[in-house]
Amino acid sequence: MDLPLDFATLRLIWWALLGVLLIAFALTDGFDLGVGALLPFVAKTDEERRMVINTVGATWEGNQVWFILGGGAIFAAWPFVYAVSFSGFYLAMFLVLSALILRPVSFKYRSKRASPQWRSFWDWCLFIGGFVPALVFGVAVGNVLLGAPFHLDGDLRSFYDGSLLGLFTPFSLIAGLLSVAMLVLHGAAWLSVKAERGPVLDRARTFGTIAGVLALVLFAAGGLYVAFGGLGYRITGALDVNGFSNPLRTTVEAAPGAWLDNYGRYPWMMIAPALGFLGAAMGLIGMWRRSAGLAFGGSSLSTVGIISTVGLSMFPFILPSSVNPQSSLTVWNASSSHLTLFIMLLCTVVFLPLILIYTAWVYRVLWGRTSTAALKTNPDLY
Question: Among 42, 207, 273, 297, whose CB has the most other CB atoms within 10 angstroms?
């Protein structure tokens, strides 16, 4: 059957859509994670902590839809990537999901008892539910840039040769801490938009400023490591962008510095790292000038820039193999079939706008600052 879009175009579209979904998750659920990580430090009293929780309480569940959509897109559009990453990184994913499961439990149980010890316990659970996923997501991205220790046999069965502790290398820890700093900045910027003016907001700005500085330093350090730390992979053989998916058909070699190749080939890609730095700087200026719009806009641009930098640097690689580069997964050799990608695109064209519309409507209806006074009058608040 002839389709209106060729295989290569659909692969490229789904690579871009995967990036959009991951960025959407970081922009929405990212500030939820950041607020959770900040909770024990920016709020001292029970009323202050309840107020901070309720800045995200009405929307955090809806924000997780982007995480689910991202996982679904990997499963349906990039089955090789799903199989290798979700099996090889199984323990890391289990750690993330365990931490994320703590969040709904903490939201629901925290106010069931008035005991300070009880509420403090669930506050720290919310901290874990924010800090741990942010850290592990960054560590995972760092390992993707380094290359994952897996290989494929002749039947395309994947074998993972690493361990959970092996994921925590110096570079992956830089990436993990960058992820934490990026999302804490985003969470502090969200509090500047949603929290009432007062001591909580002042503390959030202080921590947001620290996070912004760390994000700039760690992003620069990560960039230097990528440039001079021997990272990168390169396709060396003939490439059939419309061929059937079989990673073993692609000839790949480890090539230090190759993650910078695309910036020489496509100079417009420099926009991504520039946004990462400029956005974080804008966020810092917004914190200093007490401008909620500038702080949140800056942290959002920084998030978009940092995540885009990873994707654009690696293109067309999605998950390279450090132990057998020949097994590396790319945009051109690891996708679903031509027809599957096309049918999924049609579904996306229909349903993605609906998700955007109802999400925008929810935020519009629930917009406004959360206050400690509202805790006494609104029974729907946590």
Answer: 42
